[in-house]
Amino acid sequence: MSRATERHPAAPDTAASQGLYRWRAGIYDLQLAPYDAIRAEAIATLQLQPGQTVLDLGCGTGMSLDLLQAAVGPQGRVVAVDQCPEMVDEARRRVQRHGWRNISLACAPIDQAVLPEGADAALFHFTHDILQTPAAVDHVLAHLRPGARVAASGLQWAPAGWGVFNGLVWLAAMHSVTTLQGLGQPWRALADHGIELSLQTHLGNTVYVAGGCLPASAGGRPGRHNRG
Ligand SMILES: C[S@@+](CC[C@H](N)C(=O)[O-])C[C@H]1O[C@@H](n2cnc3c(N)ncnc32)[C@H](O)[C@@H]1O
Predict the structure, then answer these.
(1) How many CB atoms are closer than 10 A to CB 218?
(2) I want to staple 94 with a disulfide (CB 3.0 to 4.6 A). Which of 62, 171, 177, 199 is the partner?
(3) Tens of pLDDT along 6-30?
């Protein structure tokens, strides 16, 4: 077994991820600032409307909160969740600093988070480990209304012809994810739930932005939204 495989076993590792982001929390905003345009693009694909409820899964230090809270407005709601206490502390400070009142923050693994029923949209921005956790994806999609919009973005292995960039993907992944599983098609779990995704790629095909809607008549968890 290679060292990379040892460090990145198939399933995401909660403790390893918390350890990773504990030390990154204080510098995370600086590290991610160059990718603001990709964040804005991912959020735009949600097509948020005033009054809607949007979930920010793996919200980190809350770098998406400004755009999200502005898009849903004072009558809307942003529910942001992350499992790393130090990242959530940063997000909480950001919310307090700006006096945003339409945001609730929680520290929990996504699959155990208390989420509102029937949310209008969900953002997975640079949250590969969450997308590779079936219980987390099921849990989120089960809390969305039929037709809800979903956006996911993050690192991916560059396809054939662009492989020269995959060293950079590997390097970035070593500092941000605990599994390399699924990096070829990171959005796959969403597609498997019937979400038809439109896909954009950036930075030599190493970063993707995927957006789509839950089926209008059937929810993310088979049968759930078919009731009644
Ligand atoms: C690369 S950061 C992205 C943060 C934020 N979405 C952003 O765009 O800046 C990944 C975040 O996902 C969180 N995370 C990873 N796995 C998680 C899980 N299973 N449940 C909740 N948060 C998780 C980490 O703690 C980390 O803050």
Answers:
(1) 15
(2) 62
(3) 455 689 999 999 999 999 999 999 9
